[in-house]
Amino acid sequence: MSIQGKHRSLKKLLPGMLVVGIAMTSLGGCGDDEPTPTPDAGTTVDAGTDTDAGTDAGTPPAPDSDLAFVRLNTDGTVDNTFGASGNGIARLNLGAGAGNARDSMWSIDRDTQDRLVVFATKKADGTRTDTDRVVARLTAGGALDETFNAASTRKGMYVLDIGGLGDSARHGFVQADGKILSAGYLNQPSGVGSQSAHRVVMVRLNDTGAVDATFGAKGVLNSAPFATNDPTKEWGISEAYAAARQSTGAYVTTGYGRAAGVAGTTVDIVSFRYSAEGVLDSTYGTNGAFILNLTGENDRGRDAVALKDDSIFMVGSGTPAKDSIDALAVHVTANGQPATVAGFTEGYKRYDFDRPDEAFFDVAAFDTGSGEYVAAVGYSAKVGEDDDSILLIRNVTTGQEFSGVVPFSDAANDRAWGVTFGLDGKVYATGFVTEGGDNRFAIARFNLDGTRDTTFGAGGIVTVNVITGKLDEAARAVVVQSDGKIVIAGAAEAQ
């Protein structure tokens, strides 16, 4: 399908900001934003008769999840030396709280000592019903590392609470210098009447777990790039699902939002650059922003990586036609202009897997020495059919790529949420599969040509049941340690 491009009027957005679009009228929905699937409702097992449902039954406990980690050997067998239970599974309880919010996680990374750094959200303390941001660290063997943020009352983790407001942590990473960067966003009152607006929030920690005071304000960047200069008008919204670090130390974000003064309720992919100290860089894109709007409907950035030339490869979703959401890749130059690359139109490419709801949610990069690759995963969904995982592996040096549907099961519901490269360039995609109504962690290993590596697990796939009983359970991220062992991370129903 040939698609002609045009630019939306800049005057209707924020003067000077770069916006890319295509000409097509569309109505559409939003992609799925839930990190944890809902278990198959099915038939309630062992529901029986409530023997304590009288007047003294009380209030049922609020639902809760723990973070869960599974380590595999290089052949896909479970490494039972990981964790304290002898079954290769480690759990992290972030604490109790009120309301129905659940603990969740979006990404994991490792440092030079193979310690596992986790980027998550937890139930807020007290009577609050929202969430706070958490960065936690486990030892290489899966125990909470209490030397991390050791001066706090919650050893082993850093918890951010900004004025009692709900914080939405997303992706994060460990820098080469050991510092830790967590991206996300916060819904904060704008000061205009009763309005609130989403703002970019990033946190940088030293390798000890203490805040890095050289970044932002006491280690925290709280930014409203789309603030309006008119005190009577609505602010724009901006979210940072991820940040990629360039060789200069600057951070380029991806996410979605809407510039100040733009009518409607739809969102565009938005990207900003901040200096190593956390200052918005007006030289990026145009006046500090790159905005991608396909058709006037919802377009969303979910993750990003910086490549060797400091260009940025983003993934997410776009809406090119009514009731049709496609997986999307975006490639911009180091300075936020649409990159000229094979197969991309004005810096982006849509991936249509013949279903109405599709998105990439995670991306990773790898340099083989002879070529640089990116890999992205996500899902393809249609009401009434099982969801399936999708995979993109692209050689950004040559433009050659594999893209396709790669289900963990041909007969069950599954989605891929996380991706990484192994030390040898193999691609690991992780997520969940629902078998008999019971969710399981799932992971597959692929060669660079997109074929499954059948030396891993059973036909290239491994599933692990962290908790039985048709309860919440999904892997969200994966990291490979320096010895080649694979750690899958996600959330599972609290025990």
TrEMBL record:
Residues 1-28 form the signal peptide. Residues 39-59 have a biased composition (Low complexity). Keywords: Signal. The keyword Repressor does not apply. InterPro entries: Delta_60_rpt. The keyword Signal applies. Residues 30-65 are annotated as: Disordered. Pfam families: DUF5122. NCBIfam families: delta_60_rpt. This is Delta-60 repeat domain-containing protein. It comes from Corallococcus sicarius.
